[in-house]
Amino acid sequence: MLRKFALAFAAAASLQAAAALAAPAPLLDCPLRDAPFSVDSPLVDILLSPQARQLVTEATGRDPGQGPIGMLGTEAPTFASILTIRAGAAIAGMDLSVLPALDAKLRALPVTQADKVARCRRYDDTVPRLSLPKGKGPRLLLFEKINGFRDVPSVNAARDALTAMAQRKGWRLVVTDKGGAFNPHTLGQFDAVIWNNISGDVLTLSQRKAFKDFLQRGGGYVGLHGSAGDPVYFWPWYPDDLIGARFAGHPMNPQFQEARVVADKAHPLARNLPGEWRMTDEWYSFRNNPRAGGARVVLTLDESTYSRQGRFGEPLDMGADHPLAWTRCIGKGRMFYSAIGHLPETYTQPQNAVLLEDAIRWAATRGKCE
User: Fold this and answer.
1) Omega of the bond prior to 274 within 30 degrees of 0, cis?
2) Helix, strand, coil: what percent of the chain each, to 5?
3) N or C, where is the chain less crowded by C-beta within 10 Å?
4) Of 141-145, 147-151, 313-317, the least confident
């Protein structure tokens, strides 16, 4: 009997060990993995820690997961990944004087292994199997991993429009929602990556490096609308060095308005565009003008043609020079960003469709960037 029990125990232990070996190791190559808790941590990391969440609740008198914005869950995509306690307090009109003491208490909390695993869970290291269509056109990776705000209609509309465009033009386009695609070997198969309304921090540290190296070697980047629309960023290089501007807000009274768009006909990407047109969308304002960082602006927005009040009535004025779409050179690579694209119909709007087609072709072109 004892021998049978011992054999059964050994077999069970062997199966358990095999299962442990088969289970994937927790992903720990993620940004802010070891960072102390603070009022500037991603709010989702506060919500994932019962101790941190309790400290915030005690200091502010409200559960940080029950904020006025909503959508503050702990599973991606979640608005909590693009907010902090500091930013959320300002938005909610809370007493900011409690923040220094709260910050000190949060920083005193130990960051456990469980915290690190929880923080990294919204990232991935899955290398997708991508099969490029046959042909000689540009090789394009449409990237759709979203940890922050996912606006499903705009993401789907952009994908449908770009897929149809690629079929018409003979471009070789594939789609993935895996951050693991950002490795040297996979990225080396493409001429440009298109970020489809990406929100939230989505790349691990090694994936960030692979992306930056891809651009430095001559790869292209195309960013659509929400890809530069987060209120808070945890990778300064992305908004400051790649995009060249930080999101300030968009009107809410009303949110969608018709406005006059003006093209700079001296820019190569404006050659197939009229000098101006009117269209309806959600219009972004930025905290700084990307021209200051060397960007060449393709489109500007005529602020006199729409109301610029934000969510709380604050003005979102940029003045006579309100950039809407622009290009920059990143090493040997090229970047293009357009703030147009919240409403699904913008992706088939004639002038915007022409701009996107020319911009993608330009970004995927190898050679000197000007």
Assistant:
1) no
2) 40, 15, 45
3) N
4) 313-317
C-beta of residue 245 within 8 angstroms of C-beta of residue 287: yes
Q: What is the DSSP string of 63-106?
A: -GGG-SS----SSSS-GGGG--HHHHHHHHT--GGGHHHHHHHH
Residue 344 burial (CB < 10 Å; 0-12/13-18/19+)? middle
Least confident stretch, 270-279, 288-297, 310-319: 310-319
Q: What is the mean pLDDT of residues 34-45?
A: 97
In the predicted model, is pLDDT for residue 1 greater than 60?
no
Residue 299, helix vs strand vs coil: strand
Burial 273-306 (b: 16+ CB within 10 A, else e): beeeeebebbbbbbeebbeeeebbbbbbbebeeb
Predicted local distance difference test score (pLDDT) of residue 24 = 52
Taking Cα atoms as reference points, which of 291, 294, 365, 369 lies closest to residue 324?
Answer: 291
Containing 50, the helix (H) or strand (E) segment is: helix 50-60
